Amino acid sequence: MASAPTTVTITGAGGQIGYALLFRIAAGDMLGADRPVRLRLLEIPQGMRAAEGAALELQDCAFPLLHGVELSDDPRVAFDGCGIAMLVGARPRGPGMERADLLAANAGIFGPQGAAIGEVAADDVRAVVVGNPANTNALIAAASAAGVPADRFTALTRLDHNRAVGQLAEALDANPGDVRGVAIWGNHSATQFPDVAHAAVGGAPVVEALAERLGGHDAALAWLDDVFIPRVAKRGAEIIEVRGSSSVASAANAAIEHVRDEQRGTGGATTSAAVVSRGEYDVPEGLVCSFPVTSDGAGYRIVEGLALDDRSRARLDASVAELVAERDAVRALGVL
Ligand code: NAD
Ligand code: LMR
User: Fold this and answer.
1) Half-sphere exposure of 156 (CA within 13 A, CB side)
2) pTM score, two decimals?
3) From ligand 2's centre to the CA of 246, what distance in Å?
């Protein structure tokens, strides 16, 4: 018997990432060919016409899995009964802007949306925050969602994870599917730490494969420090510079993979997601921080017990310090 439709609410559905998300979700790319969906599109009045246009096109695709599309500018309507919330709507970063600039502008969006999720969403709701600054927006939404366990809120660092895999695959002339065990630690920002210490390519440790290709262990470590880490951490800015606006299709793809793996499981493989810390790796409790994670289909779990050498520890600490500063800035605004 076909399962009942899952209500998926997408905020900012009239925006660029929204447009790249909707059709793939309706086609079954996110929850699978066995799970029908009902889409709820939340927009502000200025974005409503674009969302209406997307709804017309969804109808024109005649997706068998799509059991209706509803639009609203009221979070309490859009999140009513929702099982999966994808919080995309926010102000994107433009050329020259840092994520910290966006804190004040976006803090006011995620509090009321979190509160509405607490009031009207399904009991088993899970929410992923895409809108930047994603980690701290997730912290705000989780803190505002009365009655919903905080660990139901996550933030997207799967795009950073995929970027890291893509860079390694190119450097090693490997297929991205053969690169395993990469981890993104910290904030979805330029302070993040893309870590390959436990990664393998085709079964061989990535650091050894790099050493073989680049002419020794020191050359491999220098490439990781000087090329790989900054390239991945600043890829968002590179895309903005080249495209003139922030990443869209790759962000939507990462959001789909984030939800798919959380809901359907990673099959034992490690990926990366920003989740609520319970003090793992000495990250202050309550922060929404990126860690290596797995899922068995019942939510992301942090992979514990990985060794972090002194340099890795320092990189993680620097990104965590930024998360603490963002949290404190939001507290100072009176939002938390
Ligand atoms: P966009 O400007 O094209 O779309 C944003 C949409 O959100 C607009 O249609 C706007 O009307 C809507 N919106 C604004 N406030 C809203 C509210 N309160 N409720 C509902 N909708 C609202 O931007 P985009 O390119 O789709 O990017 C969206 C966000 O995703 C940005 O914050 C961007 O920085 C972020 N982003 C995150 C990642 C990541 O990996 N975490 C990657 C890329 C982009
Ligand atoms: C990205 O990583 O592409 C987005 O978060 C956009 C940005 O501001 O970097």
Assistant:
1) 26
2) 0.97
3) 6
